[in-house]
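Chain A, query sequence.
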Amino acid sequence: MAAGFDHIRNVLLSRGEKSLVATIQMRIFADGGCAFVDEGIPEFSVAEREFPLPRGRADLALFHDDGTATVVEAKDGGCGVRDVVAGIGQVVCYATQMGMSTGAPKKVRKVLMFSSTGNEQDDQLIEMSCRAADVLPVYFPHIKQTKTLFKLLLVTQLIAEREKADRG
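Chain A, predicted structure.
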C-alpha cells in the first residue's frame, strides 16, 4: 500500500502533461472501469497505458467486453490551445491505426481529455473542434484544481483506512 501512496505523491508533485496523464489515469482506474459510462462508453475490462501503435503511443487504450475499444489522449491546457487541438489529430490518427490493425476492434471510440487552457473561449473552441472530428471531449479543471481534488481524495482514503484499522 505504501508504494501506491508514493506513486500518488509523485504524481501530485509532477508537472505538465505527464502530471495530467497520470492524474487522469488515477481517476480512470479509481472508477473501476466505469470512467466514461456517463458519456455512453461501456465499462472497460482491460486498460493499457502508453499503448504502442505503428506511429506513436496512445496515452490510454481501453478494451471493452463488447469487442470495441476506446483510445484516450490527454493534453495539458496549460501548454496552450494549439497543443490541445493537436491532440485531436493524435487521437484520430491512433484510433485509425488501431482500427486498421490485425484483429482490430469492431469499433474504436476517440476521447480527448484535457485540462483548461485558462481561457473559456479557447476551451469552448477545443470542445467544438472535438465534436466536429467525432472525438469525445472530456474536460478537466485546471491541473492545479485537479491535483487538489486528488489530494482531498487521498486524505479521505487515508482517514477511512485508519478508522477501519482502529475498529478492526
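DSSP finds five helices and five strands in the chain. The mean pLDDT is 78.
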